[in-house]
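Practice problem 4.
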C-alpha cells in the first residue's frame, strides 16, 4: 500500500533531500488534501517540531480533520499523543524519545512501555530512522550506536507498527534498498512501513508482496507516482 506523506515546515508542505536540502515546497493545501482524500492513510510529519524549531499545529489540525493520518514529528510524551488521537489521528509516531545517545543503553524500553500503556500498542508507531547504518535522532542530526534490527527487536513488544526511514536515500528517488525491507520484515510480526527513495509503482508492488507498506513523498509531489 502506498502511504503519501505530507511533511510540514514553516507553514508549507515541503520535500527535503536526506532531511537537509529543500527540494520542493507548496502552500496549496486544499489541492493536496483533495488529491489524498481517497487514501486509507496519510503520513503527516511536523518537521519543525522534530527539529525543535516551533511547530505547525494549526495545519495539523486542519489536515487531520479532513484526512486519515498517522502523525509524527517531535512527539515526546503520551499526553501529546493523546491530544493528537483526540484530534482525529489514527496512529502516532514516536522516534527520538525511544533512543539515547548512550552507547550502553541506546533503546529506552521504559519510555516505549509507558507509551504503550498510555495509548495502546495499536496506536503506537515506533520510528526507526537510520543514517549510515545506525539510528539517527532529533531531526536526524544526532547518531546513536544502535542498528535498525537491534532497535526493532527491542521495541517490538510495545508498538503496533514500525516506520523505517532510510535517511541515506530519503528524497532522492534512487530506490529503497529492498534487501533491508526483507530483513526487517523477517525480524518482526508487526505492521511494517518503509520510506526513503521510493520512486515507482513497481517498488510499491514488490514491497506489498512481502507485507510492507511504502511511504512516498518526493515521487508523488514531482509527478513520478500518481496520487
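Answer key:
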Amino acid at each position: 500500500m502506498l502511504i503519501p506523506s505530507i511533511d510540514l515546515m514553516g507553514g508549507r508542505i515541503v520535500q527535503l533531500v536526506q532531511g537537509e536540502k529543500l527540494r520542493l515546497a507548496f502552500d496549496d493545501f486544499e489541492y493536496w488534501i483533495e488529491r489524498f482524500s481517497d487514501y486509507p492513510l496519510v503520513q503527516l510529519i511536523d518537521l519543525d517540531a522534530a527539529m525543535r524549531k516551533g511547530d505547525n499545529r494549526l495545519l495539523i489540525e486542519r489536515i487531520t480533520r479532513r484526512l486519515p493520518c498517522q502523525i509524527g514529528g517531535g512527539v515526546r510524551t503520551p499526553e501529546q499523543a493523546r491530544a493528537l488521537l483526540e484530534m482525529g489521528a489514527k496512529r502516532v509516531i514516536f522516534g527520538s524519545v525511544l533512543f539515547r545517545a548512550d552507547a550502553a543503553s541506546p533503546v529506552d524500553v521504559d519510555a516505549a512501555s509507558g507509551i504503550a500503556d498510555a495509548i495502546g500498542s495499536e496506536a503506537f508507531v515506533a520510528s526507526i530512522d537510520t543514517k549510515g547504518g545506525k539510528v539517527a535522532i532529533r531531526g536526524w542530526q544526532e547518531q546513536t550506536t544502535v542498528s535498525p534490527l537491534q532497535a526493532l527487536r527491542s521495541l517490538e513488544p510495545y508498538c503496533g507498527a514500525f516506520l523505517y526511514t532510510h535517511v541515506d536515500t530519503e528524497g532522492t528517488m534512487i530506490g529503497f534498498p529492498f534487501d533491508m525491507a526483507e530483513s526487517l520484515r523477517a525480524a518482526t510480526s508487526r505492521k511494517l512501513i518503509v520510506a526513503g527513495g521510493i520512486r515507482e509503482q513497481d517498488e510499491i508492488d514488490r514491497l506489498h508482496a512481502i507485507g510492507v507498506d511504502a511511504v512516498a513523498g518526493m515521487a508523488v509531489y514531482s509527478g513520478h507516482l500518481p496520487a
